[in-house]
Description:
The chain is of the alpha+beta class. Helices cover 27% and strands 17% of the residues. The chain contains 15 helices and 16 strands. The strands form five sheets. Strands 7, 8, 11, 12, 13 and 16 form a six-stranded antiparallel β-sheet that branches. A four-stranded antiparallel β-sheet has the order 2-3-1-4. Strands 5-6 form a two-stranded antiparallel ribbon. Helix 9 crosses helix 10 (282-288). Residues 489-494 have low confidence and may be disordered.
Amino acid sequence: MATNIDLDQRGISEHGPEFAAIAPELQANILKSHGRRHTAQLFFRFGHGQQPAARLFLEEFAHTEITTAQQQQADTAQTKIDGQQRFVVTLLLSAAGYAYLDVPLDKRPGDARFAGGMKAANADLLDPPVATWDGGYQGAIHGMVLVALGERTRTRLDQHVRAIVKRLRHKSPKGDRLATVLCVEEGDSIQNDDGQDIEHFGYVDGISQPKFFVEEMAGLDTTNWDPLMPISLVLTPDPAGSVDNSFGSYFVFRKLEQNVRGFKEREKQLAKELFGDETSELAGAMAVGRFENGTPVTLSDDDVRIHNIPIPKPDLGKLNNFNYDTDPGQRCPFHSHIRKSTPRGDSVGLGDTLEGEKNRMMARRGIIYGHRFVHPNQAEFEEMPTKGVGLLFMSFQRDLAAQFEFIQRQWVNNAEFSRATPPTGLDPVIGQGPLPDGVQRYATTYGDPASTQAASAFGGFVTLKGGEYLFAPCMCFLRHATSAATQQQMAMQH
């Protein structure tokens, strides 16, 4: 495969030659989120001895179901005209899936962490034992199908998912199934009163995302933080690509269960410990790094004003033009979730540059799961779940070790990361590892470094229930999966 695209170019156009060159072979949802409010993630494992049928399934599925980046763009434009919602469907394979299909080694994605799978990274990531994961994730996974639709209800989406499940479970004349559907995860977004997507703890989510298209930057102030990134952040040449400009992307899936009641109780305890008032929302904002409506705590000690100026309603849940250059932890603590996961310069001087730090970012595509009868922002304490709800974390990146695993190991789980002295402690939301009291530190008077004090530990309310590393192959590989198998057989004969 040849490429004439500069992947390191910062800011391509949705209507430019670069996107036109890669979009027909690239799956949807990588460079731009599908944006649908409902999803289904189907995990499957092909049956023993079903390789020929599995390859044929991939070819047919690629021709009849999978959405390309090109089609995603066209569908988005058409929906703006006629208001009709259209499906986004993608298919990803694991290293075990590539091995099952007998794809030649030199045609498989070459990332070493991908080859090992998420289970092999268990100890490095400080993940819970695989035996404690949901059953569908404990054994081998060959692939995942994502189906997304933006309609008000899940009705048409679920009908489509049932049809795909039926195709995967098809029986041969001998009675052998094509595949076992290991589990189906249902994602359903929830919005706050401002129309912003929130997660189950009640906080606006998905603000600090990288952007790849110049059109997405229109009207954005980037004085303090520029989210525009090159497409090399997420794209890598697909070794199995048979046409020019065939790219894929590595994908992380993690099912993260949230103990909402425990988290909210800890927020109240921390508020009383720091400010003597368990109703103060500042404590939770300091742990997360933003107030529930998305206002960054480094910019304000309340969620309606910045420097005594009311925040315009259209800006709520969208404020992203900030860094921590003038905040040595007395406004937004070093260990807060959004500061740990997106340090915005905190790692500069610790062997990294700002550009190097930004190249750790991922394109996150997650959605929450689990039904709530009472809205997260309205629930009384007794109405808050302790299990059964959470986040289906999903991200695209070009390098699993340098992006997802680095962030989890060196930032989120690292009690000594950043320029802070003494150590910062773990990320209170997704950090994993020892969580002693007296390490995480907060300023009891907003903005006053002299008031900074250690507090009892905040964390342990998010639990990994399963996951896998996958790859989003280019379309030409999927459309010609039987041809790839023929090439492998010929190579073995010689």
